[in-house]
Amino acid sequence: ARKRLKPLRTVVAWRGRAEWDQVMVGLYCGDSRLQQEALDRVSAWKSRYGPKMPLAVDCTAELIRCKVLDSSGRLKSHELILSYGLALVRFVNLITERKQKMVSIPLRQLAREVDIPIWVVDLRHELTHGKLPRLALCRKGCDVVLDWLRKTYWSRQLGNNLCEESEDEDEDEEQEGAEENAELDNDAWE
């Protein structure tokens, strides 16, 4: 007689959908106090989950932590650039690393494949190898990356939609984003 196999269970660090949703909303809400609570919860998840923590959750937490520190006014401009810089470098490296094969593939190509704006990869390159960029550019990079994470990871988890926008709003945002990216490409490194 065949034994009936039980469905495989996936163990996760969060208690359930409600906790996941609460953290997701807290991270993206813009209120520093609620963001800090969400960051504390992510830290608890990380202590339970360790190296199995999803990269997107880890990257989101690092970037939100930068925004919380920025809004606190406790860090100097240079310290904020370094904080944002580390989070952005880690994001690009960790997200593109999964697509890296035995043969080295340029980061710009990998970024295109996962729809990360090329100027974010250029920002990562400048942070890693060049002169540190302006704080405003680091903030913009953080916002763009957080939006990318929200759209490609958070809103897809558990069938969730963090932001429901009409198609017209999406088109307007894409147009604005393209104009801003063109601006950043032209004068970002001045």
Automatic annotation (TrEMBL):
The record's Pfam families line, in alphabetical order, gives:
Las1 (PF04031)
Q: Which GO terms describe its molecular function?
A: endonuclease activity
Please list where the region (Disordered) is annotated.
Answer: 163-190
Q: Which domain of life is it from?
A: Eukaryota
**Biological process (GO), any one:** maturation of LSU-rRNA
Cellular component annotations (GO), alphabetically ordered: Las1 complex; preribosome, large subunit precursor
The family database entries (InterPro entries) matched by this protein are listed as: Las1 (IPR007174)
The annotated regions of Acidic residues compositional bias extend over 164-190
* Listed name of the protein: LAS1L protein
